[in-house]
Design a protein that fits this description.
Number of helices: 6
Mean pLDDT: 93
Helix content: 25-40%
Largest sheet: 7 strands, mixed
Oligomer: single chain
Order of helices and strands: EEEHHHEHEHEEEEH
Strand content: 15-25%
Distance between the termini: 44 Å
Length: 193
């Protein structure tokens, strides 16, 4: 059993710096890639007809009954790595506001759908998580990635998509639990629906 709180962002985490790894994404048309969702559906973001699509990409979430491979101290030392559950909770807590602005929300990580489904249930997330376990989506868009304990992970970033095209990118995202509020502010300033 873990003793750290996965639902809070610790103080004094290293702040990630913008290394330019997402500069190419604004204006990019999404490739047609079907991603497995925790809803049981396959989701192709390039074909989604929602007024706005918000995809927050996160490295990996922890579980209260499992130790993190590689250890929490090493994980906390990686700028921007810690905070995936708080980020998901923030999107849950602001979900009604995002829906009112015409946004469909997805979380995306390289964890498999079974692992992600536990998180959806435990945190009562009202939206689906998408699995990019093979890094197909990440590689097609050249998203920034890193390896931890031998696992390929996507760095924390958020995409705002409209009609199959990336309109805005938030990167790096820090602190993670403020991401949903930044997205709401951007959508509001761009006319919402």
């Amino acid at each position: 059993m873990r003793t750290d709180n996965l639902l809070s962002v610790p103080d004094n985490l290293p702040v990630p710096q913008d290394d330019g790894a997402c500069d190419h994404l604004r204006g990019l048309t999404l490739p047609s890639i079907a991603l497995q969702a925790t809803s049981g559906a396959k989701v192709d973001l390039s074909k989604d007809t929602s007024p706005w699509i918000v995809v927050y990409c996160y490295p990996r979430t922890g579980r209260p009954d499992q130790e993190l491979p590689g250890g929490m101290t090493a994980w906390n030392a990686i700028p921007g790595a810690r905070g995936c559950s708080p980020q998901s909770c923030a999107y849950r807590d602001h979900y009604a506001e995002l829906k009112a602005l015409g946004a469909t929300v997805y979380g995306l990580s390289t964890q498999d759908t079974t692992y992600q489904s536990e998180l959806v249930e435990r945190l009562h997330l009202p939206f689906a998580l998408l699995s990019d376990a093979q890094l197909t989506f990440a590689q097609a868009l050249q998203l920034p990635t890193f390896h931890f304990a031998g696992i390929g992970l996507i760095k924390r970033l958020t995409l705002i998509i409209r009609a199959g095209k990336i309109e805005e990118v938030f990167y790096p995202v820090f602190p993670s639990d403020a991401d949903a509020e930044h997205v709401i502010a951007w959508l509001t300033s761009h006319g919402g629906k």
